[in-house]
UniProtKB/TrEMBL annotation:
<keyword id="KW-0067">ATP-binding</keyword>
<comment type="similarity">
    <text>Belongs to the RuvA family.</text>
</comment>
<dbReference type="InterPro" id="IPR011114">
    <property type="entry name" value="RuvA_C"/>
</dbReference>
<dbReference type="InterPro" id="IPR010994">
    <property type="entry name" value="RuvA_2-like"/>
</dbReference>
<feature type="domain" description="DNA helicase Holliday junction RuvA type">
    <location>
        <begin position="1"/>
        <end position="62"/>
    </location>
</feature>
<comment type="subunit">
    <text>Homotetramer. Forms an RuvA(8)-RuvB(12)-Holliday junction (HJ) complex. HJ DNA is sandwiched between 2 RuvA tetramers; dsDNA enters through RuvA and exits via RuvB. An RuvB hexamer assembles on each DNA strand where it exits the tetramer. Each RuvB hexamer is contacted by two RuvA subunits (via domain III) on 2 adjacent RuvB subunits; this complex drives branch migration. In the full resolvosome a probable DNA-RuvA(4)-RuvB(12)-RuvC(2) complex forms which resolves the HJ.</text>
</comment>
<feature type="region of interest" description="Disordered">
    <location>
        <begin position="142"/>
        <end position="175"/>
    </location>
</feature>
<keyword id="KW-0347">Helicase</keyword>
<dbReference type="Pfam" id="PF14520">
    <property type="entry name" value="HHH_5"/>
</dbReference>
<dbReference type="InterPro" id="IPR036267">
    <property type="entry name" value="RuvA_C_sf"/>
</dbReference>
<dbReference type="Pfam" id="PF07499">
    <property type="entry name" value="RuvA_C"/>
</dbReference>
<keyword id="KW-0963">Cytoplasm</keyword>
<keyword id="KW-0234">DNA repair</keyword>
<dbReference type="GO" id="GO:0048476">
    <property type="term" value="C:Holliday junction resolvase complex"/>
</dbReference>
<comment type="function">
    <text>The RuvA-RuvB-RuvC complex processes Holliday junction (HJ) DNA during genetic recombination and DNA repair, while the RuvA-RuvB complex plays an important role in the rescue of blocked DNA replication forks via replication fork reversal (RFR). RuvA specifically binds to HJ cruciform DNA, conferring on it an open structure. The RuvB hexamer acts as an ATP-dependent pump, pulling dsDNA into and through the RuvAB complex. HJ branch migration allows RuvC to scan DNA until it finds its consensus sequence, where it cleaves and resolves the cruciform DNA.</text>
</comment>
<dbReference type="GO" id="GO:0005524">
    <property type="term" value="F:ATP binding"/>
</dbReference>
<dbReference type="GO" id="GO:0009378">
    <property type="term" value="F:four-way junction helicase activity"/>
</dbReference>
Length: 223
């Protein structure tokens, strides 16, 4: 499975980009938000990718971060959400916005995406809410791919599993720092985020990052 590509942009269209990887052109579909950040023709680009396999077609979808890719995969696990709908949600909210909307149960934010009705938006929030802290923790641990790492480009004939950064073990202080970073990305101020994380950490000193995020969110936005 192709999990990452890095190469040169040949052209950008309304919903996809063509990336030349050592002479092979890959059509990669992206959200509007991601396409806006992809450089112009002739420039280097690196994208995490997800391969959709159907009986009659193979489609690559590209993402600037592992968090965006993981949300795409999770969104598509919800009934009524296909690749197009997933990209619409990510294009409207961005990965951090999706994390915030789902973590806080804000289905109206999800509904703002083109083609997403209220029932589908509610289903997305209900089915994925418990998974939001884990994805947020991932965002604090990994970064976007580097176009400069051309030695890691996946050759067309390379069947090896794609290399992705491994999350590092979180000590108590590391987990708190990552939880603060994740809450900051969700729009919480440093003071309120630090207070919530400190209170959560005091209750469960050995908690990992995702557990701290989940506990802090309960304090910041109680159900």
């Amino acid at each position: 499975m192709i999990g990452r590509i890095a190469g040169r942009v040949e052209y950008k269209a309304d919903d996809h980009v063509l990336v030349d990887v050592r002479g092979v052109g890959y059509v990669v579909y992206c959200s509007d938000r991601t396409l806006a950040q992809v450089p112009g023709p002739g420039e280097a680009v690196a994208l995490f990718t997800d391969l959709l396999v159907r009986e009659d077609i193979l489609q690559l979808f590209g993402f600037l971060s592992l968090v965006e890719k993981e949300w795409h995969r999770l969104l598509m696990s919800v009934q009524g959400i296909g690749a197009k709908a997933s990209l619409a949600i990510l294009g409207t909210l961005g990965p951090d916005g999706v994390s915030r909307a789902i973590a806080l149960g804000d289905w109206n934010a999800v509904k703002a995406a083109k083609g997403i009705g209220p029932k589908t938006a509610q289903r997305v929030v209900i089915e994925l809410k418990d998974k939001a802290p884990t994805i947020m923790a991932m965002g604090a641990q990994v970064s976007a791919p580097s176009p400069a790492a051309q030695d890691e480009v996946l050759d067309p004939g390379d069947t090896a599993a794609p290399r992705t950064p491994a999350p590092r073990p979180a000590t108590s202080q590391t987990a708190q720092a990552e939880a603060l970073s994740a809450l900051g990305h969700l729009g919480y101020g440093p003071g309120e985020a630090a207070s919530a994380v400190a209170e959560a950490a005091a209750s469960t000193p050995e908690a990992d990052t995702s557990t701290l995020i989940r506990a802090a969110l309960k304090l910041l936005a109680p159900a």
